[in-house]
Amino acid sequence: MPLWFLMPHILAATLVVVWVGFVSTTGLFQTGIQFVTPVILVALIHLIWLQLTGGVRPGFATRVFARTSQTAALLVGVLMALSVFGPTPAQADVGEFLGAGLGLVFCVAVIAVVILILGLFVKLVLQGIDALLIKIRGGSDPDSRMFDAASFGVAVVLLSGASLEGTTPALTLPASLAPSTTVTIPASPAQVWTTMRTTASPSLPVPALMHILPQPTAVVVDEGMALGANRRVRFDGREGSGHLHLRVMDRTDTSAVFHVVSDTTPLADWVTFKTLTYTVAPHPEGTALTVALGMDRSLAPAWFFGPVMGGAGRLATGVLAHDIQTRATP
């Protein structure tokens, strides 16, 4: 692949890294300014490059966003390759400076995925509109560059509006998430409660998709499931270490609700954990156990991080529920 072809992608990717590094030091690091604005920056780099190389021909708007998605794909590929040589989250002990660098790499990788999705989406929309207009006119328009300019301008305006999500309360979408998992255990409710008096081992297997996140590495405090009982879990990751402190604030014969007392883990920048609820109910095959998380998404845009964090939460509750299922099954 010639360097000349890669040059605009290298320039755009460099600009994204610089932008992310700058915004990460401000109070806007959780907003669309961090995660959506880079799409505009990359598209502008490719538009300028086309202008300098004489490539602003009919259809240039579609080409700009196609190249934007190509930059994102290349960036994701490079960062995935780098992650192979980096320490795993649960084993990371790399110092504050390198840890911050690894956190930046992870953030850039997430932003690259957002750029890829939005770039492809805008490209497909523009292609569809262009095909529809050609069909209506009965042929191509030699002055379609005006249409391209207008389309590019509208796309930038819409993306600029989307980048403001999370910057003010009025521009913040609902963030509450409640992922849960229910399993059936061939044991009595009393046996299940007895099993839950001790928490799961931090070494229990987790889905591969969760390996990129900070991992629980030690249960520092485990006082059981009685009212007022505390549980304190240490998390380690490339982005740093911290503790999640929970306390049973509501206890009945059928449920135990942990409230989060404090959270100093790297996850606290991405999501606000509020509750962890265990519910036990009789079932014809034994006991139905439901593990549910109450949490708020901290990052924007909602269309991306809502499903991503909800899915991660379901994986987490699944790990907890299936561990209890395994330990409580006779």
What would the average pLDDT be, to the nearest integer?
88
Principal-axes shape call: elongated
**What string gives the helices and strands in order?**
HHHHHHEEHEEEEEEH
Helix-strand makeup class:
alpha+beta
Per DSSP E runs of 2 or more residues, the count of β-strands stands at 8
Helical fraction equals: 40-55%
Largest sheet: 8 strands, antiparallel
Number of helices: 8
Report Rg: 24 Å
- Contiguous uncertain segments of 5+ residues: none
Strand content: 15-25%
Number of self-contained structural domains: 2
Please give the alpha-carbon distance between the first and last residues.
Answer: 60 Å
Structure report:
The protein has 330 residues and is an alpha+beta fold. The protein is 49% helix and 21% strand. The protein is built from 8 helices and 8 strands; from the N terminus they run ααααααββαββββββα. Strands 1, 2, 3, 4, 5, 6, 7 and 8 form an 8-stranded antiparallel beta sheet that branches. A hairpin with a 7-residue loop joins strand 3 (215-222) and strand 4 (230-237). The chain starts with a helix and ends with a helix.
Question: Which tags fit this structure?
Answer:
8-stranded antiparallel sheet; alpha+beta; Alpha-D-Glucose-1,6-Bisphosphate, Chain A, domain 4; 8 helices; 330 residues; 49% helix
Sequence-ordered SSE layout with sheet pairings:
Elements: H1 3-23, H2 32-35, H3 37-52, H4 60-85, H5 95-137, H6 144-162, E1 176-177, E2 180-185, H7 189-195, E3 215-222, E4 230-237, E5 240-251, E6 255-263, E7 271-283, E8 286-297, H8 302-328
